[in-house]
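Internal tracking record. Fields below are filled automatically when a chain is submitted to the structure queue. Please do not edit lines marked as system-generated. If the sequence contains nonstandard residues, flag them in the REMARKS field before resubmitting.
Queue: standard
Priority: normal
Entity type: single polypeptide chain
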Amino acid sequence: MTDFDFSALYGSKYLCINIFNIHMSITIFISRFLLGRHKLAINAYQKSQILNDDADWETHYNMGLCYLYMKDLTKAKEHMNLSLQARVSHEAFQVLAQIALTRDSIQEAISVYEKAVKIFPEHADLMSHLGVLYMKSGKDAISFSKLSTALAFDPNNCKAIVATASMMQTHEDYDYALGKYKVATQSIPDSSSLWNNIGMCYFGKKKYVAAISCLKRANYLSAFDWKILHNLGLVHLHMQQYASAFQFLTAAINLKPDQSHNFMLLAIAISHLDDVEHARQAYEQALKLNKLNATTDSFKLYLNYAVSLFNHKLYSESHLKLLEASKIFERYAAKAEEDEMDLYNKVKTSLQLMGYKFPESVESTENILSASLVEENSQTMLVVYENPSTTQHEVRKKSSKKKPTETSQCEESPDAV
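SYSTEM-GENERATED OUTPUT FOLLOWS
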């Protein structure tokens, strides 16, 4: 038995002798709360309320915490509001915001923090939490303003520092972000999200060895974070270490099997390991998942698929996948990167020289695609059926000088803040 167990046990025995001792009831509550016995803790607090009609703010606050841990959000919110009526405290506001976030209501949480900062305008933690929520909702200008205010009141506020650095990293200001992360490492040296973001900063600066070093430290601190494993796979792809990329991406897929982007990256890695059949399975799985939950740009997915098939001299299938990419080319071209457009045009030109047709309009693309599918179905007699593979993991890579290969993009973790 722990000291808390003895405290709760002998406190209960004491109450049998003196049932009107309010302080002992509170002591029993604290012991049970720290032991994680929240229902028993609530019973102890309810007894203290019977003995003391004027329940203070702390009583309702602690009962609200117990209900929160018991997932009874309605009663938790009720007691937090009662706590605020007895005494306005920033702790109660923070728990109310936490309740709102548990219900996936970011706007409600923002509203709670806005009320809190009006009462506590110089509270850095409240301001930093508000800035992070604005950043998650896509309002970067307001977020930066709130985070700057938090840092003005507390220059060493870790949450505000990391959030600001993460925002600058998103805008590719890697040097500024690294400077902020360096300050944060002095306070939270064991944060996996922090080391993950540092690694992706080095990745953005094309310092791949330093990126892998930081990401492996992040992986050591949080071995079951699929985003860190995904980023390790991505960096190894850029270093053309396809076997290592395959291992990390497979681990990421085992932890998060519903992300189409992981399967696309895995398909590229397998493609470069000269296993076209398993690469095809991974691409098909990526397409299937992307229809259910679009986590990957469809143009990039079809482009990578087409390039992988082209590199293995499967020109007819590559033509079909590039036709699919052409259907969404017009609306994607405005935001496409230069290397992606070059790769698309190279493959398209190569296939055109072989006699494959690419129409100018989307309607013509659909007509040619239908004709190609009919032609492909007429040749199914030549297909050799094989046993289905149990491996369904694949990856992608950037272009090479010898032949067109897959595109690649940096995936940074949003969990740094």
